[in-house]
Amino acid sequence: MEQTNAAAASAKPIRCRAAVSRVAGQPLEMEEVEVAPPRAHEVRIKILCTSICHTDITFWRMEGLHPSIFGHEAVGVVESVGEHVREVAVGDTVVPVFTAQCSECPDCLSDRSNICSKLPDVHGFMPRDGTTRFSSASTGEPIRHFLSVSSFVEYTVVDVTHVVKLDASFPPAMACLLSCIGAAWKVAAVAQGARMRGATRIIGVDLNPDKFDVGKRLGITDFINPNDTGGKTVSEVIKEMTGGGGADYCFECIGSASVMAEAFQSSRMGWGKTILLGVIGSMAPIGIPPQDLLPGRSVIGSLFGGIKPKNDIPMLAQKYLYKELELEEFITHEMGFEEINRAFELLAQGKSLRCIIWMDGAKVTDNGE
């Protein structure tokens, strides 16, 4: 207790670089920000590297969320801790995650949920007090958090319930990806996760044919480009490919209401299940006729793939080290922090799967356009 209190009392504000989103859909602005010391139950982390996800792009395009520091896939080193933090210490390698696990509430204690009911997500702010730890170094203007992580910054502050400790020897670039790959593993999602769960035929749907080679290496057996179906819907093509029945499991990954409906129509009568993984950027309803649900088909949501981060991410890390889980195939680009807007463009254009952003730029090996 005395050591923790002393560490918390000695922590001072830090000034560092951040890629701040100030206008929806406009390039991020590299600014100097001030990062406050961690308060009780909080951890301040020096980010080693981060990656960009379509969820970041979805929220970046939305109005009313600015100024914000986006980013939610990262790995870093604990720089300081607040009071009552016991499970990590200064110098530990950690992965910040966007879902909390307090290990105390009914949801955290149940194997049926991964939604912490003690610390629900507070959009734009720290979960316990609804305030921010970020401000503009030049004006003092508050800057919003994102998904309880905010990793497009050299230092961030995260509640300890959103932190998972990893062995310091684990490759940092691979650690960035563990949360998204965790979703694939837990619900037998696209490509590699489905293959690992025993799927024998995996049909990928994408507008970008450049992704097909990578998909094959990850386990996808068949491909559909919606632009090349001769006027047929994707669901019609999938039913033809599966003998008229449809797929046992359908996964929607981009956050489009229309694509969610099409995924459902691609599922098999009787037991077809559609899992929604994509974060939707609008309030558009999903157009599913009620009578189509009666024959046994279902639709479920899957936040973070249903994984409990503190339990499952260390397990996934072990699977990677034992070569049971491939992560390298997902990394198509690596860049320095100052090139983050280029990384956004590549992902938005469908030219990148995952781009690792190195804060110090020392480990950059750009893998092409």
From TrEMBL:
Reactions it catalyzes: a primary alcohol + NAD(+) = an aldehyde + NADH + H(+); a secondary alcohol + NAD(+) = a ketone + NADH + H(+)
Superkingdom, natural source: Eukaryota
Annotated GO CC locations: cytosol
Cofactor: Zn(2+)
Alphabetical list of InterPro entries matching this protein: ADH-like_C, ADH-like_N, ADH_Zn_CS, GroES-like_sf, NAD(P)-bd_dom_sf
Main location: cytoplasm
Annotated ranges, domain Alcohol dehydrogenase-like C-terminal: 189-315
Domain Alcohol dehydrogenase-like N-terminal, first and last residues per copy: 40-167
Keyword RNA-binding: no
Keyword Oxidoreductase (UniProt): yes
Pfam families: ADH_N (PF08240), ADH_zinc_N (PF00107)
Compartments it resides in: Cytoplasm
BP GO annotations: formaldehyde catabolic process
GO molecular function: alcohol dehydrogenase (NAD+) activity; S-(hydroxymethyl)glutathione dehydrogenase [NAD(P)+] activity; zinc ion binding
Similarity field: Belongs to the zinc-containing alcohol dehydrogenase family. Class-III subfamily.
Subunit structure: Homodimer.
Protein name: Alcohol dehydrogenase-like 7
